[in-house]
Amino acid sequence: MARIVLIEDSPTDRAVFTQWLTKAGHEVLEADNAEDGLKLVREQSPQLVLMDVVLPGMSGFQATRAMARDAATKHIPVVIVSTKAMETDKAWGLRQGAADYIVKPPREEELIARINQLVV
């Protein structure tokens, strides 16, 4: 079981992803914006962060870059889950330090499998 910080501003997506992750045996901590999410990451030292891109205030790309540059959080894998589906968006997300990039809406099995590969 991994501790996962979910940074997602959509209440519906937060509820669905939390349900899937909890069912798969993970502990989920939620934030609805990047600033609160980064604070949660620093306080809780999760094994993984699930990050939306389009967020109020700081974007998920900016938050991923901030985590990658911070010695305290750079070891924590970030999986971006976003509606931004262009190849350039994926490439940019990976360049910011994301370990993986999944386009919404993900299939439950695919999301859990890709997360489990990173937290084992």
UniProtKB/TrEMBL annotation:
- Gene3D superfamilies on file: 3.40.50.2300
Family annotation (SMART domains): REC (SM00448)
PTM 4-aspartylphosphate: list the residues.
D52
Recorded hits in InterPro entries, A to Z, give: Bact_response_regulator, CheY-like_superfamily, Sig_transdc_resp-reg_receiver
> What are its GO biological-process terms?
phosphorelay signal transduction system
Matches recorded under Pfam families:
Response_reg
Keywords attached to this entry: Phosphoprotein
> What is the protein named?
Response regulator
Source species: Stenotrophomonas rhizophila
